[in-house]
Amino acid sequence: MLPNYELKCVKCGYFMEADPWNILCSKCGGLLEPVIVKKPLGVSWPLFRARKFSVWRYKELLPKVRSPVTMGEGGTPLIRLGDDLWLKFEGVNPTGSFKDRGMTVAISLARERGAKNVICASTGNTAASMAAYASRAGLRSFVVLPRGKVARGKLAQAILHGAVIIEVDGPFDVALDAVMMAAGREIGLYPLNSFNPWRLEGQKTLAYEIADELGVPDWIVLPIGNAGNISAIWKGFTELKNFGLINRLPKLAGIQAAGAAPIAKAFKDGRDMPYFTDQPETLATAIRIGRPVNWPKAFKALRESRGVTEVVTDEEISEAHRSLGRMGIGVEPASAASFAGYLKLKGAEIGDDEKVVLIATGHALKDPDAIPHVETVRVSGAEEVASALRRMIL
Ligand SMILES: *Cc1c(COP(=O)(O)O)cnc(C)c1O
Ligand SMILES: [Zn+2]
Question: Which of 76, 190, 228, 255 is deepest in the core (most CB within 10 A)?
Fold first, then answer.
């Protein structure tokens, strides 16, 4: 059992033992939230800052593990894009997305609690991350993917790191149903999707790092897929406030693609439930999700933060993808949704003098096919290259 934690059902309020194998409420099947029972003794910014900038810098606020499975995840750069605009570049995590923050925590727990096999449904990045961390931990990994809808770099990573790959017809949501059905303690198969609250405990360090480095911004802008990350980030900030480490909270802006916007559209309409869809569609495959499992936590986070949602088209995502590229920042399309959403919200919901952090969730190399081809300059021989360059420059 994990010291200083209890698990609370966000649906019915039932309390369960803080065991890594407790993943959904045994009473009602609802999502669970790990609650830190009391502020750990001695936690302070100076204590954290004496350690390497990474997920485990904040170990007093994370589940206690004897030997973490770690590759230095977290500690990502906050890149300044403008006077009051920063971008947290999660693409530089060990497998190229923020999923590594959750994986280091959840895989460490799973291994210590006897799991031999791990599984996830994935639009790609969870699979890449899980496969890598499972290999380091000596666990066997199984990934369930929507056939033909996983970006090339992510699939390559899952193969490289030795996952068994199962493809299903249908979107991510069908793959997730399969995982929820198959996983369990009886067969020693540990699920690592974001309905697993222990994974989100790792992801909350995104909030810790932003507060640590920059203080509390007015806005955090991020893409929503299965809605785990927005829930985790909100949990991170609220914990810091409850423990007296910050004295205010940011507002959250959740961005979805027009063809896969069950939460963004519903929240904009003032509804208290998503408009689920069975045919999500967007070029931003990481957020091509029609039935986001963490929606109750996400709605709570959006409401409590007095946040907003925004819907962006695939054209707007592509344009944002390209403009970030021209600023030297290579992200995958889902991450560009943050920037596209910010551009739409700025001057309206987001005030001109407000401090904003965009979460850039994954690296450009994840999805090379999303980068348009251009005409290249073709010449043969060194002399011709030299004269072609002279023509172009002079
Ligand atoms: C997983 C992922 C998302 C969506 O995060 P959720 O927690 O599912 O909302 C967005 N962008 C990238 C690159 C991702 O890998
Ligand atoms: Zn319950």
Answer: 255
The C-alpha angle with vertex 150 and arms to 147 and 152, in degrees rounded to 5, equals: 120
Which residue out of 101, 173, 332, 361 has the highest number of ligand 1 atoms within 8 Å of its CB and is therefore the one to mutate? 361
Task: State if pTM tops 0.90.
Answer: yes
| 323 within a domain of the structure (yes/no) | yes
CATH of the domain at 320: 3.40.50.1100
- What sign has the CA pseudo-torsion 311, 312, 313, 314? negative
Tell which residue, 277, 276, 273, 275, has the closest CA to residue 303. 273
Q: How far apart are alpha carbons 78 and 186 in whole angstroms? A: 43
Each residue of 115-134: pLDDT tens digit? 999 999 999 999 999 999 99
- Give domain status of residue 107, yes or no: no
First to last CA, the chain: 70
> Residue 320 belongs to what H/E stretch?
helix 314-325
In a domain, 390, yes or no: no
Would residue 134 count as lying in a domain? no
Question: Quick one: average pLDDT of 1-9?
Answer: 94
- Residue 174 in tokens: 């069908």
Tell me which residue has tokens 């909100």: 234
CA separation for the pair 238, 232 (Å, rounded): 10
Least confidently predicted of 126-135, 219-228, 295-304, 366-375:
366-375
Question: Is any atom of ligand 1 closer than 6 Å to the C-beta of 228?
Answer: yes
125 lines ligand 1 (CB under 6 A): yes
| Residue 82 lies in domain | 78-95+199-369
Q: Which two tokens stand for residue 237?
A: 């900030």
Domain tally for the chain?
Answer: 2
Q: Cα separation of 143 and 192, whole Å?
A: 10
CA distances from 288 to 56, 65, 150 (A): 31, 33, 10
